[in-house]
Amino acid sequence: MTAPTPALVELAVAHGVATEYWDWQGRHVQVTSEVVSAVLAALGVDASTPIKAADALAEYQVARWRRVLPATLVMREGWTPWFAVHLPHGSSAEVWVDLEDGGQRRDIPQQEHWVEPEWVDGVQTGEATFQLPGDLPLGYHRLCARIGNSPEIFTGTVIVTPKRLEPEKLQRTWGWVLQLYSVRSRRSWGIGDLHDLGDLAAWSANDLGAGFVLVNPLHAAETAGRMEPSPYLPASRRFGNPLYLRVEDIDEYGDLAPAERDRVRALSLQSRALNEDGTALDRDTVWAAKREALKLLFGVRPSIGRIAEYGSYCDREGHGLIDFATWAALADVHGPEWSKWPEELRDPASSAVVAFRNENPDAVEFHCWLQWQLDEQLGRVQARARNAGMSLGVMHDLAVGVHPDGADAWALQDVLASGIHVGAPPDAFNQQGQDWSQPPWRPDALAETGYAAWRDLVRAEMRHGGGLRIDHILGMFRLWWVTSPERPTEGTYVRYDHEALVGILVLEAARAGVVVVGEDLGTVEPWVRDYLTERGVLGTSVLWFERDAAGRPLAPERWRELCLATVTTHDLPPTAGYLAGDHVELRNRLGLLTRPVAEELEVDEADRDSWLNALRERHLLGDQDGDVERIVEALHRYVAHTPAKLVGVALTDAVGERRTQNQPGTTDEYPNWRIPLGGPDGDPVMIEDLPNNTRLRRLIGVLGH
């Protein structure tokens, strides 16, 4: 392992690759040349030898001179940025902007700004400087240029974003935080679904005064083979998981032939029996039953109105929907891992893929139809939530990335890095680092394509909700790229254009009327939270992590106002389990600790005791009160005393669940993302049980006091 040479450092910096950083314990870390070269290779830059690194740096420096216009310019409303136009020295340029609404702006003045010309590929090339006007409308526009009398028009993308959202105008409210698949009713098919979500939202708004319900990512998973249980490792983030469909809510259910309806009812009864299992959820068995039922419904001829609505949906989603459905249909035949498909099917634009689509139209259409049904049911859930009185309704959750063998990784190969994974460096709770096995965005490719894939994704996630949580929003600033799956510590940070990524997020949120919450936990550069606040993005505050500079529990009045405040998070046990130290015992059993368990338990006990003392100092807990239920209530009362605009309550805390839903750093060593909602004794808790749950009502009662 060697340190990077100065030339390699310069090349890395040019591509946003960190050659040094400070870890969670404040130690300076020098990234090895091997890691830096591997990350650059994933960006399409060969730095395997000093000579190749020097050549790559020279190529980078001349590349901007070969480009007439920048690929993408992102500006905030009111800004008047300068930009360069490269052209043969002595030539003139005509520059204008074609607006998103069909209009045009010709008032793009050239500025007096001399730049020495450069010889590029045997042509003396000059650089002219122009300025965009500050009153361009919000949206996505096309920057155009013509050189001299040439008929050729060069183009780039201009994105104008709002200065900020206005979360200060939010009325303070509370809401549930839950994993939908785990929250079942007696009519569920063994997995919590969108009808269950609508019922829970309507009851919570009407009876408890809830303003939102934050759910896990509902992204698409594999529909062939074993379904990935983690909602944070989806096949696609733009499209959804049909596992969450309530079959009986599909309009065509009423038009089934008697024999087919009987079969669907039999499948429903068979699946409902799984609701009695309180140990682990069985997605694959549930999906097999739902898929058979959905196939029967797909065969029902819809009305002319429904045909028109389906056509409108397909038109709106465009080729992205076709690509997704094609991947799903191919997965039905060849398995979900596209990297193992025949070579000719690994490229979504290949003639073999086109031929497959033409030869199997019904198979592709079925998966398009499933996404339409999801779109409809998601819309109904949000309508039910708002009609019942929720100020926000459903808050969706956007995962960091996608499965390396999923639909997005197949369809978006031009903007995703291959042969490398996203993860996280070591921190206090995951001391061996994390490999999330997800291919990262290529920042250069995003800019080249005008951030089209990011725009489509964000717009889709905001369509049927009042809020959007961004998991690991720090990834819009930098991401940890892992070069060795066996050793997540071997990696480094890669920078992203946060002004572009966050700006597009803010633009789409303003258009959709959606609140944005960024999960900004973990190793955070100090200026990042200030930037997000400046753009009107709410942060995330979790009680266990909120401490002052001296390490003491942060007084509630000192918490951020512009945040979603909770006691716990899905990567920790429910509060009852956390108070018992279950997370330490579990990590020790799984071999995830990097220090002796006795030392870890001592540190953990001291951490909990500091919070219990803080509760007692504020008279939220009696000196002799050690009852777990009372402590959980006191902790939530503490959060309720903060100025946070949004207060989240884990549904697991409300019913006394102890089992953790996810243990980072594991896959099948622990049944991650498969724990059904249960009470203190582990017995299943159904949605129908919630209105009469006294523990739940006492906990919600403390939020108003």
TrEMBL record:
Entry keyword set: Carbohydrate metabolism, Glycosyltransferase, Transferase
One GO term (biological process): carbohydrate metabolic process
Transferase is among the record's keywords: yes
EC number: 2.4.1.25
Catalysis: reaction(s): Transfers a segment of a (1->4)-alpha-D-glucan to a new position in an acceptor, which may be glucose or a (1->4)-alpha-D-glucan
NCBIfam families listed in its UniProt record: malQ (TIGR00217)
Name of the protein in question: 4-alpha-glucanotransferase
